[in-house]
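Final report, Chapter 2: Outcomes

The project's central promise was a pipeline that accepts a single protein chain and returns its three-dimensional structure in a standardized token representation, suitable for archiving and comparison. That pipeline is now operational. To close this chapter, we reproduce one record exactly as it appears in the project archive, with the input sequence first and the structure output second.
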Amino acid sequence: MRRALGLAVVVGLVPGQAAGAPWVVTGEAGGELDSNVQRVESGTGAPDKPFSAGVMRFGARVDRRGKVAGGAFVFNLSDLTRIVADSKLSVENVAVLASNVRWLHQLGDRPVAAGFALTAIDALPLSDDVGARTFRNLGADAVLAMRTEDDHELTLSFGARDFVYKPGHVPDPDTGMASENLDWRGPAANVRLQLMLWQPAAKTKSLELVTSLTFENRGFEKTSLTNACAPGMRPCPGATDILRRDRYQRIGAELTWVGSQVAALGYQITVIDSNDFGNSIARHRITASTTVVLPRDIYGTLLAILQIDQYLDGRFLKFGPQMQEYTSIDDENRSSLQVRVARKLVGQWALEGRAAIWRNISGNSEQLDFKRELVYLGLVYGR
């Protein structure tokens, strides 16, 4: 949702960026003040305390679409770099490179296309050997897409994922052994149904519904834990000789209205069923957003996210990255309220400002208290 609304702002600010243009180039540079740069919990038992600092951001993205080898392709390549002004927090200096390729070939005269999709995301440290929350995520899928004349589309994809969490390979200074290994790999499947519910003949407005179902069978090269205490007692982990396996399932639906403004409402539930005690979770996520044109040709976006986490193994909680999802260094798995405003300056340049607050409002808030505020001001370039 946030990518779609962000694109709506950029396209509105830069009229030359037609949706069918073969090349789209965007960039950003600016500074932000982050009240919790390391994104740590501050509740009872939290091992670290939050630090605030100024952060410099630099980013660029290139999108290309066209035809090759009898099929249509879409390609993008992006970079986002964050550098923290406080040298004591240099571990947070990270650059994220991401790329996606999708190629589809129409099967005869039928409205059916088959092809493949490749994706790669690599978060790279800039100031030390590992960096904070750095990771690599690779994916490959076979894709089958069916489309009707009414702009309804069904997409099926089947493939595999390979995820590496880099801090998990760093030796502990006391024991000399590596930290908890969170690397995983396994098969993945996705079903996406896009329905155009209403659109006039002029196609100046639209109401669209997108639903999706994702499944991943994640295998880890680490043994799982079990609850070694008797029922009714406080949970306590015990070792096993069984390798950890997670079943990751996500179902989502999003309704989007496009007219004089863009508005979207979505719901998503993610269930991770793990044989590693303490790592099973059900995550409910409700999103609502709107993008409007304000006076003086200012584009404004408001995004609200309500997230409720249910820890299926009870109150045995771990601090760390176990419950996070890794798609970028910007995403935060918390409830939040975010505001974004942008105004075109001259030529292909625009001024953009953002403000956001994140909170953890799930149960066990005393133990998992989380606070983060951020303000940003920068320049955006697009053509």
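Archive annotation: Residues 1-5, 15-19 have pLDDT under 50 and may be disordered.
This record, like all others produced under the grant, will remain available to the consortium after the project formally closes.
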